[in-house]
Amino acid sequence: MRVVVAADNAGVDLKNLVRDQLRADERVSEVIDLGAASVDDDTAYPHFGLAAAEKIANGEADRGILVCGTGIGMAISANKVTGIRATVAHDSYSAERSIKSNNCQIITFGARVIGPELAKKITHEWIGYTFDPTSASAAKVARITEYETQAAC
Ligand SMILES: O=C(CO)[C@H](O)COP(=O)(O)O
């Protein structure tokens, strides 16, 4: 699995922790870090969120973890990219369902909301989940994709 990570300056320290954990995880073949590189980079969160989501939409990554102050701005930004499903996930159950129910490619964390150990635990668990395209959830997700496709015409 190829995972893209990104954060604004509010989330850079947590992003780096998660990135390093992912790099040590044998289930992850590649980790793409789009920045920010340091807290001194004041590039606003949509630039990172959109760029990361485009990596997935373009097929250059499979999943993403995005971090800002709350996780909300990153989720909103990523969801603007066609085909992307992103959500804040600050608990284990939501992270699990974001894959199994919603086939989300991206979860987001708020560095001002979640502690580093919980974020790392959720990340570890999240890597292990897969969406079942034969599940009852598949038709529900397909309806979202159908709407998105029609809206683009
Ligand atoms: O959390 C953020 C966006 O959701 C971001 O890190 C801070 O945004 P701001 O409150 O607009 O500065």
Quick overview:
Helix 4 links the parallel strand 4 and strand 5.
CATH fold-level label: Ribose 5-phosphate Isomerase B, Chain: A
Report the average pLDDT across residues: 98
Please indicate the count of domains.
1
Structural class: alpha/beta
Task: Give me the strand/helix succession.
Answer: EHEHEHEHEHH
The number of distinct β-strands equals: 5
Contiguous helical run count: 6
Instruction: Detail the poorly predicted runs.
Output: none
| Distinct ligands | ligand LBSJTCU2
**DSSP helix fraction:** 40-55%
Name of the top-level CATH class = Alpha Beta
Described by strand count, sense and barrel closure, the largest sheet is: 5 strands, parallel
Strand content: 15-25%
CATH homologous superfamily assignment: Sugar-phosphate isomerase, RpiB/LacA/LacB
**Overall outline:** globular
Distance between the termini: 32 Å
Taking strands numbered 1, 2, ... along the chain, how are they ordered across the largest sheet?
Answer: 2-1-3-5-4
Characterise this structure.
The protein has six helices and five strands. The protein has helices at 12-23, 45-57, 72-79, 92-100, 116-127, 137-152, and strands at residues 2-7, 30-33, 63-68, 86-88, 106-110. Strands 2-1-3-5-4 form a five-stranded parallel beta sheet, with helices on both faces. Helix 1 packs across helix 5, helix 2 packs across helix 3 (72-79) and helix 4 (92-100) packs parallel to helix 5. The model has no long low-confidence stretch (mean pLDDT 98). The structure holds the ligand O=C(CO)[C@H](O)COP(=O)(O)O. The ligand O=C(CO)[C@H](O)COP(=O)(O)O binds next to helix 3.
